[in-house]
Specification:
102 residues, mainly alpha, 3 helices, 2 strands
């Protein structure tokens, strides 16, 4: 059981709380290198829903900042240790040209 006390935070029975641990500096260095993003890693970027999305009522999660750097997004907001879910894997398939990888 977890007790949550925060006077300025309105919550109701059934609401959920998620805890994301910050990713380490070493993990961030490895990720940046592996993705070959060193030239844009600390540059400011903006997040937005694609204008061509087919998803009805698509919106960014409220916990993601609209403007940030890749480093801040990966370090503080994204769980890089989570098992990838089907929607992510399906979206990545569009970007491979090797048929066996699909």
């Amino acid at each position: 059981e977890v007790m949550l006390e925060c006077p300025s935070f309105e919550h109701q029975a059934g609401d959920t709380v998620s805890i994301i641990c910050h990713n380490t500096e070493e993990e961030m260095k490895q990720l940046c290198s592996r993705l070959e993003l060193a030239n844009v890693w600390d540059k400011e970027c903006s997040l937005a829903i694609s204008s061509t999305t087919q998803k009805a009522k698509a919106k960014l999660p409220v916990w993601l900042p609209i403007t940030s750097t890749l480093e801040m997004l990966f370090k503080h907001h994204l769980d890089i240790r989570a098992v990838p879910k089907k929607p992510l894997l399906r979206s990545l398939v569009e970007h491979t040209t090797v048929e066996v990888d699909k």
